[in-house]
Model the fold of this input.
Amino acid sequence: MQPPKLGRQTFLKDNIVSATSANPRYTGRYFLILDKNNQEILEAIRMLEKKWGLSVASTADFIITSPDESQLKDADALVFNELGVALVGVEEEKVAQMKLSGTGFLIVPEKAVYIPDEIPSEDKNSKGATWGIDITGALDSPYTGAGVKVAVLDTGFHISHPDFEGREITSTSFVSDETVDDLHGHGTHCIGTACGSVNGQGKRYGVASGAHIYAGKVLNNLGSGAQSWILNGMTWAANQGCKVLSLSLGSPVTEGESYDLAYERAAQFALSKGTLVVAAAGNESRRSNNRFSPVASPADCPSILAVAAIDPELQVADFSNRAINPSGLVDIAAPGVDIYSSWPMPSRYHTLSGTSMATPHVAGIAALFFEKYPDATPAMIEEELRKNARSLSLPAEDVGAGLSIAPE
Done:
């Protein structure tokens, strides 16, 4: 399998590259969108092997966990059996031949995926809890997400962080030659907001402090990844029985662009397993300059809850994307400006802004609802999130149902 072409998206000042400009949008590899019928998948595998001479691996070959790139060096294609999607990593000429000859399947490029653009931030929190924990009602909620499995797919997690000592943590990496250890920071920050508790001075910064954490590394230490890594992480989280799956990552989309079929297949699979998927709407807008960008991928999928960001004045954040494309709606909003949370040691804490920070607030609140209603389906929890949201004097295209509020 040829390796993906990726850019970088880090918080090092000499490395910051806008995901909307210099970074590649596609990896140079392609997806074949297959029929989810098992017989059709077997026929597709035979076609790839016999007609096109490709060496084909299958996720069904990996019983314990999903494969990473290092396990696919001798394969030309990987079939995601549960999703009805095949990743093909061969020369462009062969892909062009496949398109011309007519495979009978839709062929689409694999997206390069990044953490959303960095937004300047400062720590304005001085009370016993961050403003996000306070305004969402998480501080006063009787629920902690106890026993609820919450997956955060990101740059990994600093598992030895002192604030998480004694917590239930399951982790795995889908990034070739990188452990789950977070050398970037974004993943540790998001997990802190979704599932953290208090800092060393007793300040509360996490929503679901009793949840079982599932940390999946799907972005490398430069903050970038291949779409197939995210698909691997999504199927892993769903098969692990996670009730909530949080995605603070994405790829920008253009006006008029439809949602990604491979992501939608993965989200539908997660829902079928009882997993609610939430994702960041994206940070490409600059509202102060009258620039509005559509909800990013994969948040624009119909089966994924798209999360916008608001500031401490309960106004939509300047960077937060808008519902512009027909399928890319904003579903709900949460605090996403000047959010204080955990960070890899020795820094221990850091303050960031973005829809990346809003998303784990909603993921944590969803975990609280799953604790309150342990037999609920994802659709039922989504409805509870919408019903319980605080109405804002802002357009639904910007904040959806409103500010996400924790259960009482």
